[in-house]
Specification:
Strand content of chain A: 35-45%
Number of domains of chain A: 1
Largest sheet of chain A: 6 strands, antiparallel
Structural class of chain A: alpha+beta
CATH architecture of chain A: Roll
Helix content of chain A: 10-25%
Distance between the termini of chain A: 6 Å
Oligomer: homotetramer
CATH superfamily of chain A: Hotdog Thioesterase
Order of helices and strands of chain A: HHEEHEEEE
């Protein structure tokens, strides 16, 4: 299977079992080899009394984009560690987009960067994830 | 108000408007000045098809414990940046506990460490958060 | 003064008092607004018995490129926090290059990414620094 | 060999080939299983024109304490990634101490925390390192 088709097939396989991403209202906007873009509207359950989105859920969106990007070669990979810098608040009703791009993949270790923006293209957070490849594939026999 | 009572009052004020923490089934187990311990059962919505908890939600628990700890002086503080190392998976039905303790608070900047364990006291993740104090209090006139 | 000339003048002012960078044999290869590229040969004093460069000195090169980039607007800035991922070893006699580029600068806070490569353009480490602007300029009256 | 004696023997073996630590004037103050404490005076070569120590060299001290701690079982380990938060400046003539303690060691992965203080016991920086065990021992046949 060609690389782009494989990335899409791997993402579909992940998505079917990704309860949390669906529960949080995420949507896969794009997947390519080493890259993924996901969106998530900030819902009532995600905010505090000042209508500010919980930082953990901003992280969760970024972390999910990272997961789709680092699994896009159809080789299972997990997050070993992640860091996030919060730059601006996100509010109820906004739509956040997390765009993940691979910085390096060497042996079993990858480094992926994610930018989270709102619908006005303002930068909300930057995230860096380190992946470790494990055994197994998402799409068998691909 | 005495420091421990103030920490509890600040936590109660935060909890009332913390939709996300309640939605995710978290529970405040303990709050003291500079420290907080919260628990969260791993529910069906939080896992994938292999019953593994989404790393973003483990982060969200840790981040929430961090928020209660760094706001425990009744002075509003926000997360500037956080990092997490994932050490072991968490599964459906497990109960996770995040224990946060202040490492340093100097001027407007604090560093807080969180350990996330499961009900067997196995270490699932370690988290470090950096806080920035902002204007405002949680409990007015305290 | 025009932005590029100001970046160069600020770098020259920093370099004159930067004992450590000179002591470690660093060289400024390029400075532009928000960006800096520095090189450093791995010398005998920097390696262990296996001729491997000390990771702290790889960090120091990256951190120095970060400093020149975040001070390139002639507004003094300091490192608040940094992280580094070590991807491959560096050896005695190699020449390392650290290239820093600004990811975001908003208010007093900036995020800068650095890639450290060797003379074969192999990636040795990736670094992320968070800057905080402080009072003062490097070139007075510019 | 008993654990404490082994930690000391492993540290001595490392020290003999640790050009950088000696060059930077570091001194091993204490080594125990999973822990290490090192000191370093801030020398003229390490400061800028305002007598402020280069952050990279503060990192290098912390990273070195981390290396001695994670190699204290006589099983070779390397730094996979590190983060540092700079809390206060260090000045020419001060003596910095880095104290590293193991947070967790599970399988091939360890997490180690370091606090860097000055001679007045003021906190200068906090550091977190993630180690990966590799093949080989420091003291053969121990």
């Amino acid at each position: 299977m060609e690389a782009l088709a494989l990335a899409k097939a791997a993402a579909e396989a992940m998505w079917r079992e990704d309860n949390a991403a669906r529960w949080l209202g995420m949507r896969i906007e794009e997947v390519r080899p080493g890259c993924a873009r996901l969106s998530m509207p900030v819902a009532q359950d995600m905010v505090n009394g000042h209508n500010l989105c919980h930082g953990g859920l901003i992280f969760t969106l970024a972390d999910t984009a990272f997961a789709y990007a680092c699994n896009s070669y159809n080789q299972r990979a997990v997050a070993a560690g992640c860091s996030i810098e919060f730059l601006a608040p996100a509010y109820l009703g906004e739509v956040l987009t997390a765009e993940c791009s691979e910085q390096v993949l060497r042996g079993r270790t990858g480094v992926y960067d994610v930018k989270v923006t709102n619908q006005k293209n303002e930068l909300i957070a930057v995230f860096r994830g380190k992946s470790a490849t494990i055994k197994g594939q998402l799409v068998e026999g691909a």
